[in-house]
Write a structure and sequence with these properties.
This protein has five helices and five strands. The protein is of the alpha/beta class. Helix 1 links the parallel strand 1 and strand 2. It is globular, with a radius of gyration of 21 Å.
Protein backbone atom coordinates (compact mmCIF):
# COMPACT_ATOMS: atom_id res chain seq x y z
CA UNK A 1 0.00 0.00 0.00
CA UNK A 2 0.86 3.63 -0.30
CA UNK A 3 2.50 5.34 2.67
CA UNK A 4 2.34 8.86 4.05
CA UNK A 5 5.50 11.03 4.20
CA UNK A 6 6.07 9.84 7.79
CA UNK A 7 6.06 6.18 6.68
CA UNK A 8 2.65 5.20 8.04
CA UNK A 9 0.07 3.61 5.77
CA UNK A 10 -2.40 5.92 4.03
CA UNK A 11 -5.55 5.76 6.17
CA UNK A 12 -8.86 4.51 4.85
CA UNK A 13 -10.59 7.38 3.04
CA UNK A 14 -14.21 7.98 2.08
CA UNK A 15 -15.56 9.73 -1.01
CA UNK A 16 -19.06 11.20 -0.61
CA UNK A 17 -20.97 11.35 -3.89
CA UNK A 18 -24.61 11.63 -4.91
CA UNK A 19 -26.28 8.27 -5.45
CA UNK A 20 -27.24 6.95 -8.90
CA UNK A 21 -30.90 7.89 -8.48
CA UNK A 22 -30.01 11.55 -8.02
CA UNK A 23 -26.93 11.92 -10.22
CA UNK A 24 -25.88 8.86 -12.23
CA UNK A 25 -22.81 10.58 -13.75
CA UNK A 26 -21.23 11.64 -10.46
CA UNK A 27 -22.19 8.34 -8.84
CA UNK A 28 -20.44 6.43 -11.64
CA UNK A 29 -17.38 8.67 -11.38
CA UNK A 30 -17.15 7.98 -7.65
CA UNK A 31 -16.97 4.22 -8.31
CA UNK A 32 -14.30 4.72 -10.99
CA UNK A 33 -12.28 6.97 -8.67
CA UNK A 34 -12.48 4.32 -5.94
CA UNK A 35 -11.21 1.66 -8.35
CA UNK A 36 -8.36 3.84 -9.64
CA UNK A 37 -7.35 4.85 -6.10
CA UNK A 38 -7.26 1.20 -5.04
CA UNK A 39 -4.98 0.43 -8.01
CA UNK A 40 -2.61 3.09 -6.65
CA UNK A 41 -2.71 1.57 -3.18
CA UNK A 42 -5.05 4.19 -1.67
CA UNK A 43 -7.78 2.64 0.48
CA UNK A 44 -10.77 4.65 -0.76
CA UNK A 45 -14.46 3.82 -0.46
CA UNK A 46 -17.06 5.56 -2.62
CA UNK A 47 -20.08 6.25 -0.45
CA UNK A 48 -23.36 7.06 -2.25
CA UNK A 49 -24.88 9.81 -0.11
CA UNK A 50 -28.04 11.89 -0.21
CA UNK A 51 -27.36 15.27 -1.86
CA UNK A 52 -28.61 17.23 1.17
CA UNK A 53 -26.37 15.21 3.50
CA UNK A 54 -23.34 16.06 1.35
CA UNK A 55 -24.27 19.75 1.32
CA UNK A 56 -24.73 19.73 5.10
CA UNK A 57 -21.41 17.97 5.65
CA UNK A 58 -19.42 20.12 3.21
CA UNK A 59 -20.90 23.57 3.76
CA UNK A 60 -22.35 23.52 7.28
CA UNK A 61 -20.67 20.94 9.54
CA UNK A 62 -18.17 22.46 11.92
CA UNK A 63 -15.74 20.85 11.90
CA UNK A 64 -16.31 18.92 8.66
CA UNK A 65 -15.56 15.22 8.81
CA UNK A 66 -15.43 14.33 5.10
CA UNK A 67 -12.28 13.24 3.29
CA UNK A 68 -13.46 13.96 -0.27
CA UNK A 69 -16.71 14.79 -2.00
CA UNK A 70 -18.21 15.13 -5.45
CA UNK A 71 -20.88 17.74 -6.17
CA UNK A 72 -21.92 19.68 -9.22
CA UNK A 73 -22.69 23.35 -9.52
CA UNK A 74 -22.51 26.29 -11.84
CA UNK A 75 -19.75 28.82 -11.50
CA UNK A 76 -22.18 31.65 -12.22
CA UNK A 77 -21.64 34.66 -14.42
CA UNK A 78 -18.88 33.95 -16.95
CA UNK A 79 -18.67 37.67 -17.84
CA UNK A 80 -17.28 38.42 -14.38
CA UNK A 81 -15.96 35.24 -12.72
CA UNK A 82 -16.16 36.26 -9.05
CA UNK A 83 -15.84 32.59 -8.06
CA UNK A 84 -12.07 33.15 -8.10
CA UNK A 85 -12.63 34.90 -4.80
CA UNK A 86 -15.49 32.87 -3.30
CA UNK A 87 -14.06 29.42 -4.10
CA UNK A 88 -10.34 29.86 -3.50
CA UNK A 89 -9.52 33.05 -1.59
CA UNK A 90 -8.66 32.33 2.05
CA UNK A 91 -11.69 34.35 3.18
CA UNK A 92 -13.94 33.12 0.34
CA UNK A 93 -17.45 32.10 1.34
CA UNK A 94 -17.38 28.86 -0.66
CA UNK A 95 -13.77 27.92 0.12
CA UNK A 96 -14.79 24.68 1.84
CA UNK A 97 -11.45 23.04 1.09
CA UNK A 98 -9.72 25.73 3.21
CA UNK A 99 -7.31 26.60 0.41
CA UNK A 100 -4.97 29.33 1.61
CA UNK A 101 -2.25 30.99 -0.44
CA UNK A 102 -1.06 34.55 0.28
CA UNK A 103 0.07 35.14 -3.32
CA UNK A 104 -3.33 34.00 -4.58
CA UNK A 105 -5.18 36.21 -2.07
CA UNK A 106 -3.16 39.27 -3.19
CA UNK A 107 -3.91 38.50 -6.84
CA UNK A 108 -7.63 38.13 -6.05
CA UNK A 109 -7.64 41.61 -4.54
CA UNK A 110 -5.92 42.88 -7.67
CA UNK A 111 -8.57 41.11 -9.77
CA UNK A 112 -11.43 42.60 -7.74
CA UNK A 113 -9.86 46.07 -7.99
CA UNK A 114 -9.48 45.92 -11.77
CA UNK A 115 -11.23 48.76 -13.57
CA UNK A 116 -11.44 47.15 -17.01
CA UNK A 117 -12.36 43.70 -18.22
CA UNK A 118 -8.98 43.33 -19.95
CA UNK A 119 -7.16 44.19 -16.72
CA UNK A 120 -9.28 41.69 -14.75
CA UNK A 121 -8.73 38.87 -17.22
CA UNK A 122 -5.01 39.61 -17.35
CA UNK A 123 -4.87 38.93 -13.60
CA UNK A 124 -6.99 35.78 -14.02
CA UNK A 125 -4.83 34.20 -16.74
CA UNK A 126 -1.40 35.40 -15.61
CA UNK A 127 -1.68 35.18 -11.82
CA UNK A 128 -4.73 33.28 -10.54
CA UNK A 129 -4.94 30.39 -13.02
CA UNK A 130 -1.22 29.48 -12.77
CA UNK A 131 -1.51 29.20 -8.97
CA UNK A 132 -4.66 27.07 -9.23
CA UNK A 133 -2.99 24.85 -11.84
CA UNK A 134 -0.04 24.27 -9.51
CA UNK A 135 -1.87 23.95 -6.17
CA UNK A 136 -4.99 22.09 -7.44
CA UNK A 137 -7.44 22.99 -4.65
CA UNK A 138 -10.18 21.42 -6.80
CA UNK A 139 -10.10 18.76 -9.47
CA UNK A 140 -12.78 19.13 -12.11
CA UNK A 141 -14.22 15.88 -13.37
CA UNK A 142 -16.40 17.05 -16.22
CA UNK A 143 -18.82 19.66 -17.45
CA UNK A 144 -22.31 18.63 -18.46
CA UNK A 145 -23.41 20.54 -21.55
CA UNK A 146 -26.87 22.01 -21.30
CA UNK A 147 -29.02 22.40 -24.37
CA UNK A 148 -31.93 24.83 -24.19
CA UNK A 149 -34.85 24.37 -26.55
CA UNK A 150 -38.08 26.22 -27.05
CA UNK A 151 -40.61 26.46 -29.84
CA UNK A 152 -40.48 29.91 -31.33
CA UNK A 153 -43.94 29.41 -32.88
CA UNK A 154 -45.67 28.85 -29.53
CA UNK A 155 -43.35 30.26 -26.84
CA UNK A 156 -41.87 33.72 -26.77
CA UNK A 157 -39.21 34.80 -24.28
CA UNK A 158 -38.45 38.50 -23.84
CA UNK A 159 -34.82 37.54 -24.48
CA UNK A 160 -33.00 34.26 -25.11
CA UNK A 161 -29.38 35.18 -24.48
CA UNK A 162 -28.61 35.43 -20.78
CA UNK A 163 -25.42 35.10 -18.78
CA UNK A 164 -25.27 31.49 -17.72
CA UNK A 165 -28.24 30.48 -19.88
CA UNK A 166 -31.97 30.34 -19.35
CA UNK A 167 -31.76 27.41 -16.91
CA UNK A 168 -30.54 29.80 -14.20
CA UNK A 169 -33.72 31.81 -14.53
CA UNK A 170 -35.92 28.89 -13.36
CA UNK A 171 -37.25 28.54 -16.88
CA UNK A 172 -38.46 32.16 -16.95
CA UNK A 173 -41.99 30.92 -16.21
CA UNK A 174 -43.30 34.44 -15.75
CA UNK A 175 -41.75 35.54 -19.03
CA UNK A 176 -43.30 32.82 -21.22
CA UNK A 177 -46.25 33.87 -23.29
CA UNK A 178 -48.12 31.58 -25.61
CA UNK A 179 -48.49 32.64 -29.21
CA UNK A 180 -52.26 32.77 -28.71
CA UNK A 181 -51.99 35.58 -26.12
CA UNK A 182 -49.60 37.79 -28.09
Amino acid sequence: GLTMPNGTAVPALELLAPGPGYDPLRSTYSVWIQQWAEQLGIPLTAKPTNFNVIVEEVFVADPPTFDMYILGWSLGNPAFPDYYESFWATSGGSNVMAFSNEEYDAAVQEFLSATTKDEAFDVVWNKLEPILAEELPYIYLFDTPILEFYRSESVSYPFTTTLGGLQFSVGLKGAVRSAATQ
